[in-house]
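User: Batch of two.

Assistant: Item 1 of 2:
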Amino acid sequence: MKLSGREPIASFVEAIRNGEQTIEDTDERQGRDKSLGASLDYGFRHAFEDDELPIIALLHLFQGTVDVDALAWMGKGDHALPELKGKIKEHLTSLLDRARDTGLLTHLGGTWYTIHPALPWFLRQLFARHYDGQQGHSTATAALRAWVKAIGALGDYCVEQFDQGNRDVTQHLALGEANLLHARRTARCQGWWRGVISAMQGLRILYEYQGRQAEWSRLVAEITPDYCTPDDAPISGREDQYGPVMAYRSHLAWERDRDLPRAIGLQQKLIELLRRQAGPALALPVGTPLDARQQHRVNAIGTEVYTLGLILFEQGSPDCVAAHEECIRHAKRTQNTGTEAMSHREIGHAYLGIPAIRNLDAAEAAYQRSLALRDPSDALGRSRCLSSIGMVHRYRFEESRQRGEPKATVLKHAQTAELYYRQALALCPPTALPDLAPMHNNLGNLYQLISQTELAREQYEIAAQYSEQTGNHYEAGRTRGNMAIMYAEAAEREAAASRQRDLLHRARAYAQAALRDFQHYQGRAADKEAGAQQLLADIAQALTKLPA
C-alpha cells in the first residue's frame, strides 16, 4: 500500500531523520548512516507510483532549484522523454507538491521548488537506476539532453520576454542561475552547441541586468574558441551560434574594455555574416509575411545594426541615425516593438548629443515615440525614456539661461527636468544598477547647474558607488571628475580664502580618485586620464594663488 496523506508521509520523513529506519544503505563512502539510503528508497516506493519514480529521479539533474516548466518541456519536442509523455504541467505540479509534503522539496512560489540538502545523493542513485537504457527506460544521456534543451528553452523564453520589456523574468533567471550554468557546462562537454548558446542567452540577460560584467566576460572567453577561429571567422557548421558569440565579444570590447576599434571590427564581421544570412528575407517585398526563420534572421540583423548605431553615436557620427532608422524598418517588419522603441530612444540621443544635428524638439519627439511603444510592465524602459526627456529639459534650461530669458521661464525648465529625473528614479528597478548610476549622475549635473552643491554631491556619490559596484570604473571616473569640477567652480564663487582652500582640497581629492579610475584601463582611456591630470594641475595652480 502506498503512503498517502500528509501525516503518514510526515511520520515516515521524521522517522528517517530520527534514524528509526534500519534497512541497510549500500553507500558508506559518503559517511552516511547505513539505514538512510534504503530507508529513502523504501519510503519513495511507498509514497509514489512506479511510473512516478522516474520523474522524481529527474530531479537529480537540477542544481538546487526545480522548475515545473522545465520538467514539462522535457516531455515535448525532438528530445522528449517517454517517461514524461502525457504528463501535463498540472500533473507534474501535483507530483512535486506531494514531494513537498514529504519535506524533501520546499515550494518557493509559482513554479519553483528547492531540493532538501540531504536528497541529491539519493536522487543520483535513483536516476542511475531508472535511466539505464534497459527495459524501455531512456538512457542517462537522453535524459540529460532533454534537460539541457529544457533549461535552454527557459533561457530563450526569458530573453524574448525581456526584449519585450518584461523585467520580471530576471527573478526567474536568478532562481535558475545554477541550472543555466550547469546546462552550459554539460552542453559544451557533449558538443551540443546550440544548447550552450541557449543557456548563455539567459545568463547574459541576468548578468548584464545585475551588472556582473567580470563573470560574464569569463564565460564568453571560455566559449569563444568553440565558435570562432583565431582570425574571428566562424567555425564551419556553427555559424548560427557564431553570431551571438561575436555579439557578446563586441559588447564586452565596447562597454567593459572601452576598446572601440576592436568592438567595431568584431561588429562589422558579425553584420557581414548576418546580412548574408538575412539576404533572402530582406529581398522580399515589404508586407510579405515572414516565416519564423526569416523573422529570426531579420531580427538578428536589426539587433546588430542597432548596436552599430550605438558605437557610431559614441564616435559622434551622425550616421548613427541612419543605422537606427534601418533598425526601425526591420523591427516594424517583424513587429518587434521592443527594439523599435529602443531605436527611437537612440535617435533622440543623437539629436540631443551630436552637435552637427542637434535638435531638442526632434530629440523629445523621438523619446516620446519610444515611451509610447513601451509595454506598461517595462518599468526600466519607461524609466529610461523619462530620464531622457528630463535631459532635454535640462538642455532647454541651459539654453534659456544663456539667452537671458525671464527667470520664471528658466526656472520652469529646471523644475521640469528635475520632475522627469525624479520620476525616472522612482520607476527604475532597484537592481538595475547600470541604469541607476547615470540617472543619479544626471540629477547631480542639474543640481550643479543651479548651484545646489551639496544636493549635487549626494547624487554624484550615489552614482559613483553604483558604477563601482558594476565594475564600471570609466563611469565612476567621469562622475568623480564632475564632482572635482563642481567643487573647483564653487571655489571660484567664494570670497573667503579659507573656504576656497577647503573646496579646492575637495576638488583635488575627487580629481585624484577620477584619475585612478581612468588608469584602471591601462591607457585605453588616455584622453580622460589627460583631462584629470589637467584638472589637477589647474587646482594646484589655484591653491598657490591663495594667501598663506
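Item 2 of 2:
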Amino acid sequence: MRILQLDVNRIFYELVKPEASVYEESKEKRVEVKDALVLLVSVEKGDTEEVAIKAIDDAVAFASKIKRNKIVLYPFAHLSNNLEEPSAAAAIFSKMKEAALSKGMEVYAAPFGWNKSLQLDVKGYPLAEQSRSYDAASIAEVRKNAAPKKKEEKEHKPINTGIEESAALKEEEKVKSSWYILDSSGSLTPVEKFDFKGHENLRKFARYEMEKVRSYQQMPAHIKLMQRLQLVDYEPGSDAGNMRYYPNGRLIKSLLERFVTSKVISYGSVEVETPLMYDYGHKALKDYLNRFPARHYVVRSDDKEYFLRFSADFGQFLLMSDATVSYKQLPFRFYELTRYSFRREKSGELVGLKRLRSFTMPDMHTLCKDVEQAKGEFMNQFKFSKQMLASIGIESSDYETAVRATEGFWNDNKDFIINLAKENGKPILLELWNYRYAYFDPKFEFNIVDSMDKAAALSTVQMDHENGKRYEITYIDSDGSEKYPVILHCSPSGAIERVIYAFLELAYMKEKEGKVPSFPLWLTPTQVRLLPISDKHVEKAVELAEKLKSHEIRVDVDDTEATLEKKVRNAEQEWIPYICVVGDKEASSGKLSVRIREEKAQRQMALDDLAALIEEKTKGMPKAELSLNMLLSKRPIFFG
C-alpha cells in the first residue's frame, strides 16, 4: 500500500463519472472538508486487512498529535504501478474506513471507482506532507519479532484470546429470509410491492434490513453531539466499543437506569443480580453459546476458561433451574440491569453509542406455562415496551416495528402476529425465516432509524423454546408433574446506551426540520441556568439557585468572565431549557427574565412559578443532583 498523507486546510472533490468496473454508489456528489488529515491511497497486490489497519493506526496516531479528528480517505491509483484488482482494492479500502470509524475519527471516504475533480489546500509546515508505504510481509515480520519467546518448560496452555463466534451467528448468515409489510388490517404485501407513500421511515428501515450494510461512510450525528455536550466519548485506554462517561453523561445514564428498573419492578418482576463471567466448559452454558447469535470474549482464571456474559440469560437461567415454581405462579418474571454485558462486535460496526462491546441492558425473563400463555404475555410485553418508550420520551412515530419469525410459526399463529400489527397502529416489517437458526421464534423489535438511514433496535421480546429444557428449568403443573416452560426474553427499552443514541439522533433530525433539539426535561443535566450580569450579581444568583435546588431542580450559575451574550449562547449550545438573567432589576423585583428554549420565547416569572412549572413537567420521573460544581468557573472542561 502506498499513501500520501496530507494535513490540509481544505479538501474539495466532485464526482464526475465511474471509471472502474467496481464502484460505490454515493448520494454526495460534491464534498468539502476543512482541517483534516487526508490519505491518498493506492491499494497494491497482496495488501491485507492487517495492512489497512496498520495504515489507519499510524494515521490516527499522527492525527492525535496535531489535534485533528477528521480523516479523509481518497482512492488514488497514481502512487503505484502494482495496483490490486478493483473488487479486492475496494474491500481493503472499506476496511480502512471501518478501522478509522472504530478509532472514533470523523471519517469522510471518497467513493471508490470514480473519476473526480480534486482541490487541496495543504498546510505549510514540514510534516504536513508525508509519504508512507506498507506491505503484509513486513508487518507480519515485525509482529513475529515482537512476540515473546516461548519458554522451554510447558506452562499454562495458551489463553484463548480469540473471539469465539457462535454457531447461531454462522447460521444467521445462511438462513433465507422473505420480507413483507404487514398492516394493521392484516394485509400482507411483499416489500417490493408495498406502496410506502406516507411511510418513508418504514421504507428506509426495510431497505437497511434487507441490504444488511451495517458500516457507516461518515460519522453519525450523535457522536458529534455526545462529545460537544460533554456526555460520553471513546476510551483510548480500553478495547474499542468501551466508553467513558463524563458527569452529565453519567447523570443521564443513571436516571434512565433507575427509571427503567422501577417500571420493570412495577410490572411484576423480581430483581436479581448474577455474575459477569461463566465457566466455558459448563455443558448447558456452552451449548447455549452456540444458540445465541453473538461473538463473546474468553478470559482465563487459574487453569480454566470463562466467557464474559453478553446478557443476563446465563445467570438467570442457572438461578431459575434451582427455583421451585408452581403453575399457579406463572407467568413468573426475573429481572436484572446488566451493567455490563459484553459482545465482541465487528470493528466496522462499532459506531458511537449505537453498537458497543460493553453495554448496559435491562434484561427480563418470563417463565410461561406453554406457547398460548407465552403469546398472551408476549402481547402484554409488546404494550409494556411501547409504554416504556413513551414514558421515557420516545414516541411511536420515532421508531419502526419489526416482527421476525419462522414460516412455520407464521402459518400456525397468523392471528397472533396480525394482532401485534393492529396493536402497533401502523404497518410493520415482517421477516420470515425458512428455519429457526437460534433459540427464539418469534421476536419483535422497535427500531430507531437515524440521520444516516441506519437502524438500531430498542425494545425487544423473544419467545424461547429451548432453554427451559437445556437448563433443566421446570415448573410443577396441576397434576404434580414437572414440565419445561416457554421463556420470554424482554428488554423493554433496549440497551441504555442505545436509548441515549436515539435521543441524540432524534434531536439532530428535529433540528434539521427547524425545531429545537433537546433532551426530555427530566433527563436534561442542567434544567435551569442563572446568568449574573456582573460579579456583584453572583451572590444573588447563587441564593436563587439554592432555592431552586431545594425543589430538586438541577441548576447552575455561569459566574465566568464571559459577556452576557456569550453566556446565553453557551447555554443554548448546551441545550439548557430555562435560562435566567440576574441583574439589579431581577434582584429588586423578585421576578426573573426566563428564556424558555423550547418555546423560543422570553417570560417574566417568579422563582416559585418557575419551580412549579418544572416540577409539573417532571412529575413521576426520578430525580438526581448534579455532581458538578454549581459554579461554572469551578468546573473542568473535558473537551477543548
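The chain is about 35% helix and 30% strand.
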